[in-house]
């Protein structure tokens, strides 16, 4: 009986998507800096040379077939041009009917040295988006009623949903401080299966930043330290919905620990949305991270939290070291 109720809820939510005009929010990641191109295109190429990253998030695993998000990114530094280029692919799937949103974007950033200490880094992301649904995997009411006599529901044909989108960001940083913002969905891509609703993705605003409050043990000929404590924050606003995150990182070569709080204290009656615990390891050029979201809202007994895994690989292919001599590492954590 409990499983049937979950199926009914899932069908109801998908049906509502067809019948009324709704607005939704983008998927989010707890490990922001392990997915830097998703956070802001300004991070494109802000590395020594090449970077590959893979990210996976399983949101609310206690509810069957809900939210799974995957991202793949590659970016490369071009120090001769003070620039970075990259590509970011995102795939987000929800529900038993595999309601999916996919995007592939081309990214570019440019580093401006304002003075001896401060850099300014604008970035852009031009992307192609696609919305899909597998009707064959949906479960309708006549399939789960006791007698099976309820008339079936045949959905009308729908249009394929493909569109283009654009995001821009600005990042400022020095040796210990970083901060910036991202404006996403500036072209408001269409996300309705039926053209008469003309539903658009609302613009998303992200503001992020942080500070290295303590560090020691700088490595020779490197911008990296063997021990660092950092605080960081990230605020997202989309379609009248605000989400705030604040956290603390502790890194001691090669292990990193992190604790985050997601919520807006004193604004809502709930204690918040989640407390996030992170553990990661940096072995040479490979960064592997795992985090778990402990739900603390009214949904604490229903969701099962969220699992997130990140894998980042940075590598060098060029033998020309002079091009990398101007590299200025960002002080933000890698997870």
Characterize the structure shown:
This protein has one domain (2-324): Beta Barrel (Porin), CATH 2.40.160. It contains three helices and 15 strands. It has helices at 2-19, 36-39, 141-144; strands at residues 50-59, 67-78, 83-94, 99-110, 112-113, 119-132, 161-173, 177-184, 204-218, 225-238, 241-252, 255-262, 274-283, 286-295, 306-315. Strand 7 and strand 8 form a beta hairpin.
How would you concisely characterize the structure shown here?
By secondary structure, the protein is mainly β.
For the terminal residues, how far apart are their CA atoms? 41 Å
Shape assignment? globular
Structural class: mainly beta
Beta content comes to over 45%
Order of helices and strands: HHEEEEEEHEEEEEEEEE
CATH 2nd-level architecture: Beta Barrel
The helix content is under 10%
Q: Count the domains.
A: 1
List keywords for this structure.
single chain, 335 residues, mainly beta, Porin, 14-stranded antiparallel beta barrel, 3 helices, disordered N terminus
Write the layout of secondary structure elements.
Elements lengths: L1 H18 L16 H4 L10 E10 L7 E12 L4 E12 L4 E12 L1 E2 L5 E14 L8 H4 L16 E13 L3 E8 L19 E15 L6 E14 L2 E12 L2 E8 L11 E10 L2 E10 L10 E10 L20
Antiparallel strand pairs: 1-2, 1-15, 2-3, 3-4, 4-6, 5-6, 6-7, 7-8, 8-9, 9-10, 10-11, 11-12, 12-13, 13-14, 14-15
